[in-house]
Amino acid sequence: MNKKFEIKILKQFWLGPPEGDLCSHGEILLRIGDTVLSNEEDGEWNISESALSLLRSVKENFPCRESPKYYPEEIKEENYLIFHCGCFTSFCPSNIGWKVRHTERVVELLDFKKNDGEIDFSMLIVKIPLSEYAKEIYNFAIDAKEFFLGNDKRTENNELYEGQYHQFWKEYEELLEYVGKIE
């Protein structure tokens, strides 16, 4: 029997030289019950930025009230959880999103949409314990982070503003610690 919510990295890679690519990319399996929303046939996604958005959705409802700390000021909201490109090209139509509602120790996942709503999975509604959701997201985020280990990054002329990459990882680490403690 499939899990009610499953997400994992199938393949992870850099688009160019590792020192110049600030995001990891790859293939993602996303399954809600028996429905597959993403697999290797969907091509590449931005794994590291998606992992941060997913971590944020464990801590609070999604869409969140505030955009991620590493977003440039002009980007006011985060609408998706799985990105093809991320904040550097925020108008990319390839994405997957859903709403996350927290009540007590349960999360309700609903209103699943893909590619700016072009593909609608609104019939999918899942309620699972927060601990199960947190565990799936935590494992995904750990796998994404481990890919960066030992890869020095060249941020000069590669960020939208100075310190953006550092801010991304600061928020990532804070949320990873928070989510890792959920039982």
Query: Structural class, please?
Result: alpha+beta
Total DSSP helices: 3
Largest sheet: 4 strands, antiparallel
Order of helices and strands: EEEEHEEEEHH
Runs in which pLDDT lies below 50 for 5 or more consecutive residues are none
Count of individual domains: 1
Shape category: globular
The total strand number stands at: 8
Strand content: 25-35%
Portion of residues in helices? Answer: 25-40%
Alpha-carbon Rg, integer: 16 Å
What is the residue-averaged pLDDT?
Answer: 87
Distance between the termini: 23 Å
Description:
There is one protein chain. The protein is of the alpha+beta class and 183 residues long. It has one domain. Helix content is 26%, strand content 30%. It contains three helices and eight strands, in the order E-E-E-E-H-E-E-E-E-H-H. The strands form two sheets. Strands 1, 2, 3 and 4 form a four-stranded antiparallel beta sheet that branches. A four-stranded antiparallel beta sheet has the order 5-6-7-8. A hairpin with a 2-residue loop joins strand 6 and strand 7. Helix 1 crosses helix 3. It is globular and about 45 Å long.
Q: Keywords, please?
A:
183 residues; alpha+beta; 4-stranded antiparallel beta sheet; 3 helices; 26% helix
Question: How would you summarize this macromolecular structure in one to three sentences?
Answer:
The protein has helices spanning 47-59, 130-146, 164-180; strands at 5-13, 25-32, 35-38, 45-46, 82-83, 95-103, 106-114, 119-129. By secondary structure, it is of the alpha+beta class.
